[in-house]
Amino acid sequence: MRLIRLLKNDLARESAQWVEQGLITRQQAEAICAVYGADYSVASQAARGYRVLVVLGYGFIGLALITLLSANWDTLPRALRMGGLLCLTVAVNGAALWLFQRGRDRAAERLFGLGTLVYGASIILIAQIYHLGEHMPDGVFWWALGGLPAALLLRSPGLALLVLCLAAIWSFIELQLGYYPMTFALFLVSAGYVLWAGRRSVLLFLALVGSLGFWLEASLSAHWADGPTGLAWHAEQLPVGVAYFALAYAVSHGLNAQPGSTARDYATVLSLWILRFALFTLFVLSYHGPWRSLIRADWAHQGSMWAVVAVLAVAALLVGQRVGKAVPVSAAVGSAMAVFAAVANLAEPEHALAFQVLSNLVIVAFAVWLVVAGVRDGESQAFFLGVAAIVLLALLRYIDLIGDYVGTAALFIVMACVLLGAARYWRTRQRLGDDT
Questions:
Q1: d(Cα 284, Cα 435) in Å, to the nearest integer?
Q2: 215 and 171 in contact (C-beta within 8 Å)?
Q3: CA of 262: how far to CAs of 192, 273, 319, in Å?
Q4: Each residue of 366-405: pLDDT tens digit?
Q5: CA-CA distance, 56 to 321, in Å (whole number)?
Q6: Do the beta carbons of residue 161 and residue 209 sit within 8 Å?
């Protein structure tokens, strides 16, 4: 059984109650929590709530300073404004460094977070004082780069997440303006280092996985652009995205096979979000319009597209082979790429309806697999995700008909046959299991 982080805190609190009731000893409760990577001490302290309140408090201090400066900004001399911003930035970050040197890492981390916000506000206001606006993304870049040393020094996931978000905003603006953000790789590597050497952080892990995918797609978009036209969508990016998430799904199984609870935590959230992404993509493709747009696209960059897809698919296959998932990974990637190859080279616009019907049937099969896997493996999230997918698909197809009423009714009959056939197969397997 895999537990998400919130349920781990519930487990810690429940085990503390079992100790109070004399059902188990404290040592046994700590051992149970250790199996799932839960911290037994969270049941007897309000550390999490304390940290949240302190962070919010520092945030309001920053807002108060910015509001006060804004209210009196025009009445202050330029030199006083410049000097005040520099002194405030140095004072806050200097105090954080002073706390760090005395071993108060958590307090230093929170103050460095405030210092990063003050540093960013200083960059914006100084640019306003001296009318520095030739290339606006530079300010965001120096903001992110200025927060990076503290994140690396303390190996703080919170600071690293803040820096990565700023870097993502900077790279997105650069791409929109037609520039390629090469140094975004520096922030990705830094976030990876903090994840490896610092505390566990599911948010930073998901942000890193998403940022890697964003950078891959943005790099391909920039490479395929005919000129400095900014961030543009190409049909070839869809197969690349599917292959990337297939690799991420294989990696999640690889992490789940690791002995540590941190790796299993990352595996749980990664596989869950990939399943959600897959369902979202299938629901988008369950309409007629996206397929027609894909068929009409020029697909002018298939050579480099298939090269990237091949690299990602081979990596996914190698990772899947190590954890016994080579067959499902290769089947999923192979079938998806066969469909994209047909769309890019063989299909005509009038074939969009057939691909739409196919995607609806794939959603039903996928949802059935989620329900069966959820019950078989005791994963309630997968079970309810599968049930929700079936109900949502029925609702969408009732509102948005495929073809006409007769065509939609026929599709509903096929869906019912798939669901009933899966239920019968599942029941037969259960009986065989009971007999053995």
A1: 43
A2: yes
A3: 14, 17, 19
A4: 888 887 777 776 666 777 788 788 778 777 777 776 666 6
A5: 46
A6: no
